[in-house]
Every structure is written in C-alpha cells, then in structure tokens.
Amino acid sequence: MKRTSILFLLCLTPIFPKHLRAQDARALVQQAVDAELRADREDQSRWRYRDDDRTKQVVSIVVQTDAGAVKRAFLRNGQPLSPLDAKAEDDRIQAYIHDPAALAKSHRDSQSDDKSATAFLGMLPSAFAWRIAQQTPEQILLSFKPDPNFHPPDIQARVLGVLAGELTVDKAQHRIVSIRGTLTQDVSIGFGLLGRIRQGGTFDVERREVAPTLWQITETHVHIDGKALFFKSIGQQQDEIQTEFKQVPGATTLEQAAELSKQH
After folding, report:
1. Would you state the pLDDT for residue 198?
2. DSSP letters spanning 36-72
3. Sign of CA dihedral 46, 48, 49, 51
4. Which of the residue ranges 42-51, 87-96, 182-191 would you say has the lowest mean pLDDT?
5. Could you report the per-residue pLDDT of 54-72, keeping only the tens digit for each?
6. Higher-pLDDT residue of 207, 109
7. Of 130, 157, 166, 198, which sees the most CB atoms within 10 A?
8. DSSP per-residue codes, 91-104
C-alpha cells in the first residue's frame, strides 16, 4: 500500500443534498478502493528509491526485485558510513541475499502486509461514515468518522472502526493520494491482557504517481501508543520518506540489486 500536504484544498465545499452526500461519498470511496485493488493485481513494476527513516536517522537505497528487496544504508545520523561500517553493511546484504530462510521470512512478512493492506482497503467503505469535505479540479477530500452501524469481525477491524480522519482521492485515476487517521478511543485486546492501543494515536500515509499510472507510497508517519496491528513492517513510531524513484527491469536479480543499491 504503501503520501503531500492537503492543506491547499481550500476551495468551498460543493453543495450536495444531505440525503445524497453520504451515499455519494461512500460510492467515491468504493471506486477508489476498487481502483487500488485492481492496480495492485496488475502492477508488476519494481523500483529503486531513496528511503529516509527519520525515526532511526538512517538513509538507505532500496532496490526491489521479484525475489525480494535489498536495502543498503549509506547515511547514519547525517554522516556517511565509515569504511568499516560500509563493509559490515555489504556483508549483511550478501549474507541476506544468499540465505533462503531469511528470504523466505521476508517474503512471508511481505505477503502478510499485503493481506492486511487489502483487508484494510476492503473495509474502508463500510467501516466509516463518509462525507465529501472539499474539492479541487484534481482531487476530492473526504472526511470519515466511526460508523456506529459497523460491526468489526476481528481485532484489526476493531482498531479500524475507531478511526476518524481524511482521505484524498485523485479524480482522474480514482487513486488514493493520502489517508490520515486518529484513534478516537482506546482499543483493548483480550480485555487489556494482550495489549491496548491508546486513544490519540495517528497515522498519515501519502502516495504519488511516480510514473504514468504507477503510484507508490512516498511518506509514512505513524505515532501509535500500543501494539501496531495493521502491518508487521510498520512500527509504532515511524517517520519515513521515499524519494528518487527509478524503475528497474523486472528480471533484476538480488545480486544485481545489491550492486544497484551501492549507487547513491
């Protein structure tokens, strides 16, 4: 799944009859969800990009392949890696790309994330009460809040069901530009014995069209007090920005990706 400020959406909200607004808003969200799920099935592109993890103060180059992704750090705390640290990073990468167990685990985690993202998207239209908030010629801003008629089927859905926030949709392609949410109340897991997610936690995911009709997540900001449930690879405190997207051939191997990751 996988982010720009939407503060420029300052035009007046168009006037919709009240009895149509919620229905129209939900239909727009469903259209965007359908577009995202269709694109996820069809998009086979692979990318090389710069990843700036501002929580860990590490900047890396990531190269995607069909067999997995290679991620090479080259800056820590704003400074280039020392020759010793650079060698250790290269040794780590070489060990990883030749370790079938590590690659298999990474693949399982990626599949789990994809499954959670698909479930998250699928529940968006029904889990919330939607309202068209603002429009520009290019985008629609929709606001959402918990729908009292939504009955969550599992723990992930329980967390989803207490979010309130905003969703921005690109009009031309019906793609999700950004989604921002805040937990409106605590969520207990196993009566609090297995965990608790605290009210006030926030997340913000921004996406951009990095090539014609191809969209990628470009920013992830997560600040959740408690156990994060949506994606294993997304932390509870995370500020991450991706830039400099360049498409790589689909047949790129892990060994080739390791070499491409050295170019920064």
Report:
1. 79
2. HHHHHHH---EEEEEEEETTTTEEEEEEEETTEEEEE
3. positive
4. 182-191
5. 999 999 999 999 999 999 9
6. 207
7. 130
8. HHHHHHHT-HHHHH
pLDDT single digits (tens) 11-20: 323 333 343 4
Would you say residue 10 lies in a domain?
no
Main-chain phi, psi angles of 86, to 5 degrees = -65, -40
- pLDDT tens for 166-189 read 999 999 999 999 999 999 988 776
Q: Is 87 exposed, middle or buried (0-12, 13-18, 19+ CB in 10 A)?
A: exposed
Task: Give the pair of three-digit tokens for residue 158.
Answer: 């329980």
Residue 7 maps to a domain: no
Q: 182 Cβ partners below 8 Å, 6+ apart?
A: 163, 164, 165, 200, 201, 202
Q: What range does the domain containing 175 cover?
A: 18-260
Q: At what angle do helices 83-97 and 100-127 cross, to 10 degrees?
A: 80
User: Considering the domain boundaries, does residue 59 fall inside one?
Assistant: yes
Tell me, what DSSP letter sits at residue 11? S
Cα angle, residue 233 at apex, residues 160 and 101 outer, rounded to 5°: 135
Number of domains in the chain: 1
Residue 1 inside a domain? The answer is: no
Q: Judge whether 179 and 142 are in contact, CB under 8 Å.
A: no
Tell me, what amino acid is at 211? A
